[in-house]
């Protein structure tokens, strides 16, 4: 009997060790994907590119994440999930090394494309993998652990990257991430149990959801909301440097405040989202647009900017909570396909938002990029309206 108990305990430890390894992978992917936001200016200077061009390093990863999220189910269904996850972590490692050694803008873009494949693949498979790993009653807890890695990276990656970039240079930051990813790769191979191939929905089922009007309207609203947010977020560093004239320590302070506010935003949204889902979904992009506009006249006052950026971070972090809740209610019959479509839509919006912001900065100003992002957010709120367009037919 004691042997059986010990085996069961060991099995539970391995399962939760696998969840922890995936949470670590999620954190490293988020950190790797958005680290250039805090290092945009020195990267552009070193690679002899404009700030707008350097911002495309964000958008190219989004493009490849979109393609991967739509195609990987048919590939992953033929392979052991443990090795798929490990391969995606290895791809992230290769990307980091290439970025650290990049001698040209073209090399940077190739490295970011590889990272996009890792991001799209991981997030498309994450929920289904968690559902295989743990009993049904433990899925919410396991998913909470997975997204904790996301929240930690969102809060700390940008300010730590900004600070370390001023100390060891932007290349040193990416070199510093590499050994952590090596550890994560080993943990994935040793903690994730063998998960042989299983039947998966073909990628066509993902896109077929767009035939449902409420899903099509919702995905358009998702893209406008996240696209508008990333047209702004991608270029916060040059805004802080040119408008606020923040030095390295002040820049880290602003980014850290924005990141930490995300915890409050996530908690606050979780507390009210079930009661006021559609009102929240319509109101948040309007609120984010308002805060973004307020940054422009307040941009020369450090403390005013700090307060506004903290509010911006809280609102921005609450948006994914609302959309995840919508997904669980509006696409109940095909949650995995809906999740894949959501990943593709968000990643595509990141690409287009960064592209729009970069073009507006290069041709006009940072203020124009912020106003462009505001316009997208307001269009999103108009589409959502009272919520009737994105509610399933009853």
CATH class of the largest domain: Mainly Alpha
SS element count, helices: 14
Spatial shape: globular
* CATH fold annotation of the largest domain: Growth Hormone, Chain: A
Order of helices and strands: HHHHHHHHHHHHHH
Mean pLDDT over the residues: 79
- The CATH superfamily of the largest domain is MFS general substrate transporter like domains
Summarize the biggest pleated sheet.
none
**Count of strand segments:** 0
Strand content: under 5%
Residue runs with pLDDT of under 50 for 5 or more positions: 1-10, 199-204
SS-based class: mainly alpha
Distance between the termini: 52 Å
Number of domains: 2
Helical content class = over 70%
* Radius of gyration over C-alpha positions, nearest whole angstrom: 21 Å
* CATH architecture tag of the largest domain: Up-down Bundle
Organism: Paraburkholderia atlantica
Subcellular location: Cell membrane
GO cellular component, one term: plasma membrane
Pfam families: MFS_1 (PF07690)
């Amino acid at each position: 009997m004691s042997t059986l108990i010990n085996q069961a305990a060991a099995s539970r430890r391995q399962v939760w060790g696998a969840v922890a390894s995936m949470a670590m992978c999620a954190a490293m992917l988020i950190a790797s994907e958005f680290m250039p936001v805090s290092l945009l200016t020195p990267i552009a200077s070193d690679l002899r590119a404009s700030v707008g061009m350097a911002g495309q390093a964000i958008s190219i990863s989004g493009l490849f994440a979109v393609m991967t999220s739509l195609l990987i189910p048919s590939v992953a269904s033929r392979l052991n999930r443990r090795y798929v996850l490990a391969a995606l972590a290895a791809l992230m490692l290769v990307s980091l090394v290439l970025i650290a050694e990049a001698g040209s803008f073209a090399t940077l873009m190739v490295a970011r494309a590889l990272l996009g494949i890792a991001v799209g693949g991981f997030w498309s498979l994450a929920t289904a993998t968690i559902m295989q790993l743990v009993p049904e009653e433990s899925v919410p807890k396991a998913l909470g652990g997975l997204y904790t890695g996301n929240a930690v990276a969102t809060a700390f990656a940008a300010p730590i990257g900004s600070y370390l970039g001023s100390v060891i240079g932007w290349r040193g930051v990416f070199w510093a991430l590499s050994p952590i990813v090596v550890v994560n790769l080993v943990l994935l191979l040793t903690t994730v149990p063998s998960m042989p191939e299983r039947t998966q929905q073909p990628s066509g089922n993902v896109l077929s959801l767009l035939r449902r009007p409420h899903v099509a309207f919702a995905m358009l609203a998702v893209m406008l909301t996240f696209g508008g947010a990333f047209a702004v977020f991608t270029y916060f560093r040059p805004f802080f440097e040119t408008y606020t004239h923040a030095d390295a320590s002040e820049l880290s302070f602003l980014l850290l405040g924005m990141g930490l506010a995300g915890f409050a935003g996530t908690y606050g949204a979780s507390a009210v989202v079930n009661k006021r889902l559609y009102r929240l979904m319509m109101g948040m992009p309007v609120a984010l647009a308002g805060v973004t506009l307020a940054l422009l006249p307040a941009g020369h006052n450090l403390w005013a900017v700090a307060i506004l950026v903290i509010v911006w971070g809280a609102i921005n972090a609450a948006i994914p909570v609302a959309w995840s809740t919508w997904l669980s209610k509006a696409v109940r019959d095909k949650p995995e396909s809906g999740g894949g479509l959501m990943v593709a839509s968000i990643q595509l919006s990141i690409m287009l938002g960064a592209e729009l912001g970069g073009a507006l900065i290069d041709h006009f100003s940072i203020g124009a990029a912020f106003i462009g992002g505001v316009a997208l957010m307001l269009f999103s709120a108009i589409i959502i309206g009272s919520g009737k367009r994105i509610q399933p037919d009853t």
